[in-house]
Design a protein that fits this description.
By secondary structure, this protein is mainly beta. The protein is built from 7 helices and 41 strands. The strands form 6 sheets. The chain has a 15-stranded mixed β-sheet that branches. It has a 7-stranded antiparallel β-sheet with strand order 1-2-5-6-9-10-13, with no helix packed on it. Strands 11-12-14-15-16-17 form a 6-stranded antiparallel β-sheet, with no helix packed on it. The chain is elongated, with a radius of gyration of 37 Å. The protein starts with a strand and ends in a 5-residue tail after the last helix. The mean pLDDT is 87.
């Protein structure tokens, strides 16, 4: 209904059905739910404004798929056939919200909407996963928009870097399905279109993806992903000579793995390695190995981060990382996997976890874990170690005799641990000796003081709190101070005693020597050389059982003449 007022030279336009979008603009191909408007004859302008709530504006052009948005009102210019809409909070297209600058939108003939300059975007409108600004966005329909905008990326050091996404494209699962002839057909009505955009980050200016890590390459933003997708190369910033490493990740965390290679395809290593040719150990910090076949005796795999305050680069097994909701309390998984930290400028390295020094043979194998530190520039390494030796095929009574003998003397020795309150160090060292599926029950019982080492390692012997040092000239690990003897087979001991541990690297064929010195000439000695375990003691019954010709055990008695040589060999490294 139109009411003319010729004196004022205007007319009131009123919709009789206020529940529908009845006012239409044929030239701009839009309609609105605003039910009242004023037409000013002399200005050639129609003013529409919703006084209480916002009203809807909807395109009637078929190929715009019912594009609609809410606004406070509009000015329709009859001469230019344009619709200037105001009070627009956002326009929804595909899966995103586009926020016009100052809430203004200009629409021309045939429903052509001006590019929304200085606009903001919320990609994935439901969760507002990515928020961009400084945009220039052209909306062509409810299912398509184009343009560019800036995403402000913030790394873990709270540094911000702008990423300009130049093209916004729409991912259509139907098109992807057509490429796969074996894929079942997709119902078009069930398709949920997805916005994605790509950008390319160049080497300069430096883009710091994560504290200490520069990135270059492609970045993809997808509405159906909670993180940006990086497909390019990273370089650690602690040394200009560091190589670029290929990555493909959807997470904010950089993971270091043993399969990494540099741009030339050469293997990179992180951790402590052993080179057989030169019979030496050395530290690699995402750098090339001396030789690609070098053995990783302490390998660092896992999540990379930087402790900026401490000046340390850290690589640790993801299971060690505390969950945000843990309130600082460590759980069963937090004691699994390796921890490796270094400071290149100071040549400092720290490590916690499993050391692979010995082959894991069936009859007798040695596992070592430790917590330590070193200087890789001075080739100095040390650790507080836990050694577990497995005598899986022991048939006789040799170790039973040994356990009983030591148990009688236990009252003369200081305890290593308080089982009622195990230390955190012990949990970390023990965790390295277990697969995850076996660790949980062990951890729970240890935590509650209901488990002794003899329960855990009933087929072997465990030494704990062994202070091992690396001698770079002698190519050996040697112990300092007392050693903790935890158990022998099913006999729990938990005693500190004199003695030593000596590990010769021996060009890739490690030799192990252990002496448990009980004083007053009483001792037990182990020698593991060239895959053969040899034993000797001041305990006659022990020696008799070891030397029993009928025994099926795969170990032998040590010649008494060997003992002084082993002891002297140890003393040349430890002069204390």
């Amino acid at each position: 209904k139109i009411e003319y007022d010729m004196k004022k030279r205007e007319a009131g336009i009123h919709s009789e059905d206020k529940s529908q979008e009845t006012i239409t603009f044929p030239s701009t191909q839009y309609k609105t739910s605003i039910s009242d408007a004023i037409w000013y004859f002399d200005k050639g302008e129609v003013v529409l404004e919703e006084k209480v709530n916002k009203a809807s504006f909807t395109s009637t052009k078929p190929d715009q798929d019912g594009l609609t948005f809410d606004a406070k009102g509009a000015f329709y210019q009859m001469h230019g056939q344009t619709l200037d809409v105001f009070g627009v909070e956002y326009i929804f297209s595909v899966d995103s919200k586009i926020f016009p600058d100052s809430g203004k939108v200009k629409i021309h003939e045939h429903a052509y909407m001006d590019s929304l300059d200085h606009s903001r975007l919320h990609i994935n409108a439901e969760h507002e996963t990515f928020k961009l600004d400084s945009g220039s966005i052209f909306i062509s329909s409810r299912k398509k928009f184009q343009g560019h905008a800036i995403y402000m990326y913030e790394n873990d050091a709270k540094e911000k870097f702008p990423i300009r996404f130049d093209k916004f494209l729409i991912y259509n699962p139907i098109l992807e399905t057509k490429k796969d002839k074996k894929a079942p057909p997709v119902n078009p009505d069930s398709v949920k279109l997805v916005t994605f955009a790509r950008s390319v980050i160049k080497e300069k200016p430096p883009f710091i993806k994560q504290a200490g890590i520069q990135y270059k390459g492609e970045v993809e933003l997808r509405a159906d992903s909670t993180q940006l997708i990086f497909r390019g190369k990273i370089k650690f910033t602690d040394d200009d000579s560091n190589p670029w490493i290929q990555i493909d990740t959807t997470t904010t965390t950089i993971n270091i793995s043993s399969t990494e290679k540099d741009e030339d395809g050469n293997k990179l290593g992180t951790g402590i390695f052993y080179n057989k040719k030169f019979n030496k150990i050395y530290t690699a910090t995402r750098t090339n190995l001396v030789e690609e076949k070098d053995q990783a005796i302490f390998e660092a795999n896992g999540a990379y981060r930087q402790d900026i305050n401490a000046g340390k680069t850290i690589i640790e097994d993801a299971r060690r990382i505390l969950h945000p909701n843990s309130k600082g309390k460590k759980g069963v998984e937090n004691y699994l996997g390796n921890y490796f930290a270094y400071n290149k400028a100071k040549g400092m390295v720290e490590y916690e976890g499993k050391f692979d020094l010995f082959p894991q043979e069936t009859a007798f194998f040695v596992k070592i874990s430790g917590i330590g530190e070193g200087s890789f520039t001075q080739m100095q390494y040390k650790m507080n170690a836990l050694l577990s030796m497995n005598f899986d095929n022991v048939k006789g009574d040799a170790f039973k005799n040994m356990g009983e003998d030591l148990l009688k003397q236990k009252r003369n020795f200081e305890s290593v641990l308080n089982y009622a309150s195990p230390t955190e160090e012990t949990f970390y060292k023990l965790g390295a000796h277990f697969e995850q599926k076996d660790w949980e029950s062990t951890y729970r019982r240890l935590e509650n003081g209901r488990l002794e080492f003899a329960d855990i390692f009933e087929k072997g012997m465990v030494l704990n709190n062994v202070e091992l040092h690396w001698d770079s000239k002698g190519k050996v690990w040697y112990s300092k101070g007392k050693i903790g003897l935890m158990n022998v087979m099913k006999t729990d001991l938990n005693m500190k005693t004199d003695g030593f541990v000596l590990i010769e690297m021996n060009n890739g064929e490690p030799n192990l020597f252990i002496k448990i010195d009980l004083g007053d000439g009483e001792f037990y000695m182990f020698s593991y050389v060239a895959g053969e375990l040899r034993l000797l003691s001041s305990n006659y019954n022990f020696n008799k059982e070891v030397d029993n010709p009928k025994s099926k055990n795969k170990f032998k008695i040590m010649d008494e003449a060997e003992r002084p040589a082993i002891e002297e060999n140890y003393r040349q490294y430890n002069r204390e």
